[in-house]
Amino acid sequence: MARSILVAMDDSPLGRRALAYALETFPDAHLVAAHVAYLEYDMLPTDTPEVYEAAVDELDEVGDETAQRVFEAIKEMADDGAVTVSFLTGEPEERLVEYVDSAGFDGVVMGTHGRDGVARLFIGSVAEAVVRKTDVPTTLVK
């Protein structure tokens, strides 16, 4: 039986569905819901203090709003203390893979993607990367 499960959470219905699945499937496991905030600032010169500060301010604003919605969803779905919440920043696929490796999770549960419309028919790049780059069983919820 799995002892420690990472549930990758974003602000999407599939993120909430992944948490519901983990709560139901692994009732005795230690569940950690991780949300990753990411902004694309790869092309900006972060050595310029003004640009760096603007990027951090924007990450704080976006991260706070989205994270708040994600954390509220977790609170609504899980009993107090049933899920540990972790907030990460950076490239989602890289941060999730690093977190799985460093924390020694026994498994991962995540949505197949955070999109809708026709794009929802394909597996997301973050989900695909986590499946490919980690050595633990990963369950994709759709």
Q: How would you describe what is shown here?
A:
Residues 1-142 form the UspA domain. Belongs to the universal stress protein A family. This is Nucleotide-binding universal stress protein, UspA family. Pfam families: Usp (PF00582). With 142 residues, the chain is α/β, with parallel strands linked by helices. The chain has a single domain (4-141), classed as Rossmann fold. Helices cover 44% and strands 20% of the residues. It has 4 helices and 5 strands, in the order βαβαβαβαβ. The chain has helices at residues 13-25, 49-77, 92-103, 125-133; strands at residues 4-8, 30-37, 83-89, 107-111, 138-141. Strands 3-2-1-4-5 form a 5-stranded parallel β-sheet, with helices on both faces. It is globular and about 40 Å long. The two termini are 23 Å apart. Residues 115-123 have low confidence and may be disordered.
Number of helices: 4
Query: Over all CA atoms, what is the radius of gyration?
Result: 15 Å
CATH homologous superfamily annotation = HUPs
Proportion of residues in β-strands: 15-25%
Structural class: alpha/beta
What number of domains? Answer: 1
Uncertain segments are 115-123
CATH topology call: Rossmann fold
Query: Using DSSP, what is the number of strands?
Result: 5
Nearest-integer average pLDDT: 81
CATH architecture annotation? 3-Layer(aba) Sandwich
Cα end-to-end separation: 23 Å
The coarse overall form would be globular
CATH class: Alpha Beta
Largest sheet: 5 strands, parallel
